[in-house]
Amino acid sequence: MAANAPATFVFVPGAFHGGWCWARVTRELHGAGHVTFSPSQTGLADRRHLLSADITIDTFISDIENLVQSEEMDGVVLVAHSLGGRTAAGVADRIPERLAHVVFLDAVIPAPGVSAPETMSESQREARLRLAVDFDGGLSIPPPPARVFGLENPADIAWVERRMTPQPLSVERLSLTLRHGVGNGIPVTYLHCIAPRLPIIDSSAAYARSRSDWTYTQLDCGHSAMVSDPDLVAAELLAIAGRSTGD
Fold first, then answer.
1. pLDDT digits (tens, 9 = 90+) for 146-180
2. For a tag site, which of 80, 146, 157, 226 has the least CB within 10 Å?
3. In angstroms, what CA-CA distances link 84 with 4, 40, 104?
4. Closest CA to 12 of 46, 37, 49
5. Is-contact 147 161, C-beta < 8 A?
6. Distance, C-alpha 108 to centroid of its chain
């Protein structure tokens, strides 16, 4: 990518969220002249009418892969939040030649061959399944209160709770198969939100910190930083874009 060229960002939301959750960050990036895509995953947000038991983690990966391919993007800065880290890892595994950088924003780093529920305790798995069964017969998991994601501002909480949609349970059941290691040799930055920490992210953050070939940075904000602290997230992404484009 030539120096001073605008960067192309593709955003991957976490569980229960859609492309809408990145609006405050993308506004900052647009103001700096960059290009952004923030799609919702199949079955969620503006695509909630597609909710079905056939949606898997491979569906989510294909959502992003096909967007990148159909828009003929190159030099993409791929940014994933929370459970979207599994999707981003799969995209990097499939189309590394299209990506310039992967950014995990307080994201789950997947263990190859392990499904999301396998990272939980037996009691957590059972509670999650009961929740889905009671909600809609086991098709999806209803959104939790937004405070779970570290939000404190009442306006932020109301905005997120209005827009969250159920998460397809089937996405969590299949393990993620990677042909290459997580990141697949692409430059990776892990942004760890520590005020407050979200305990389920701790193991992923520890793994990221242990990777000498990755950049690990702590952010003084909560898990849903793209909502509560978009200026901080945008500043980090602009710095990454500058390094990726050679500015």
1. 999 999 999 999 999 999 999 999 998 777 889 99
2. 157
3. 29, 11, 8
4. 37
5. no
6. 8
